[in-house]
């Protein structure tokens, strides 16, 4: 969910959809905005992807979101105004009731104060806009339509720039008082590495892609050799993307291998602790790194959990997310749609 590409619009050959049963979903990320239109069965009728305005103001980001949902709607033979509702999955501090988003550091120029995303986007679409956390809505989509379908309780883990999470407990998305699912900030080493959140020892401080890049840069400054940054320059990327980590691992780069191995160990310890507390039936692995590294690393994380599981005979599987990079946008659309019966 975290590498932008050129505009991609898909339209299927189909009869005109029932406009009372079509919903739009927007996945807002630091590098891309993904938008879809779905029907009542969750089938994608139209989709588009655009780069997020890198230096855009909040207003410009909202306009880019509207442009994306407008294009996805056109691909489905509709206008945004004909959609029954639009959902948005976004990073940062989400207040779903107020429809505001705050403390967003990696989108456009970033913003800290609450911004009325739902109201302002709703003025453009002419309808209701629902707002939710980006990872939580993606996990809800996997629960309803993807890898989580056979289960009543799942933990979703989105391994990418950071480590995000989402919970479904006995069929109900669990948000606690608004901050449930922050699996990346489970402490795996008291007093350990500094996390981007400012605290020490969080899982994300070892497994988040941004934290691993900071560690790699520090290691290079101390004289260690790696091809990570050579690959970054060749690809013309400003940061170490998931594809670069994957390539370095395939080339058996020692530093990349060590950092990823450490990440897997910390993921194993943290996820096992979550299972010991919640005893969910399955873990769904997604996110940029999770999706890129695939089932082999899902198996490795499962094995890294094993020494820490309190009831080894009931260790849940670690499954790959099935909806790919559309999970966030589909989950956002489901946020706006009526609950499944």
TrEMBL record:
Pfam families, A to Z: ROK
TM annotation in the entry: none
Listed SUPFAM superfamilies: Actin-like ATPase domain
InterPro entries, sorted: ATPase_NBD, ROK
Positions of the UniProt region annotated as Disordered: 1-25
Taxonomy, superkingdom: Bacteria
Sections of the chain in a coiled coil: none
Family according to the record: Belongs to the ROK (NagC/XylR) family.
Protein name: ROK family protein
Protein source organism: Pyxidicoccus fallax
Taxonomic lineage from the root: Bacteria, Pseudomonadati, Myxococcota, Myxococcia, Myxococcales
């Amino acid at each position: 969910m975290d590498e932008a590409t050129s505009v991609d619009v898909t339209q299927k050959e189909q009869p005109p959809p029932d406009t009372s049963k079509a919903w739009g979903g927007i996945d807002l990320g630091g590098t891309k905005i993904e938008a879809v239109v779905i029907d009542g069965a969750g089938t994608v009728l139209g989709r588009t992807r655009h780069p997020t305005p890198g230096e855009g103001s909040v207003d410009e980001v909202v306009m880019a979101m509207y442009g994306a949902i407008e294009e996805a709607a056109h691909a489905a033979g509709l206008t945004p105004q004909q959609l029954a509702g639009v959902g948005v999955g976004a990073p940062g501090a989400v207040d779903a009731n107020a429809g505001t988003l705050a403390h967003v550091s990696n989108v456009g120029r970033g913003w800290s104060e609450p911004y009325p995303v739902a109201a302002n986007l709703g003025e453009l679409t002419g309808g209701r806009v629902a707002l939710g956390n980006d990872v939580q809505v993606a996990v809800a989509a996997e629960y309803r339509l993807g890898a989580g379908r056979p289960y009543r309780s799942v933990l979703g883990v989105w391994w990418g720039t950071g480590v995000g999470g989402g919970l479904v407990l006995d069929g109900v998305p669990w948000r606690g008082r608004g901050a449930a699912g922050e699996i990346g900030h489970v402490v795996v080493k008291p007093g350990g590495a500094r996390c981007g959140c400012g605290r020490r020892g969080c899982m994300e401080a070892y497994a988040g892609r941004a934290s691993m890049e900071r560690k790699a840069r520090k290691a290079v400054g101390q004289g260690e050799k790696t091809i990570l940054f050579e690959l970054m320059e060749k690809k013309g990327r400003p940061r170490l993307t998931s594809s670069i980590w994957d390539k370095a691992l395939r080339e058996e780069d020692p530093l990349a291998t060590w950092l990823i191995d450490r990440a897997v160990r910390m993921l194993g310890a943290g996820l096992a602790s979550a299972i010991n507390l919640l005893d969910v039936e399955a873990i769904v692995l997604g996110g940029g790194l999770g999706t890129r590294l695939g089932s082999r690393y899902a198996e490795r994380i499962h094995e890294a959990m094993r020494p820490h599981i309190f009831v080894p005979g009931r260790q849940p599987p670690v499954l790959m997310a099935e909806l790919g990079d559309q999970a966030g946008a589909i989950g956002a659309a489901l946020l706006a749609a009526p609950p499944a019966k």
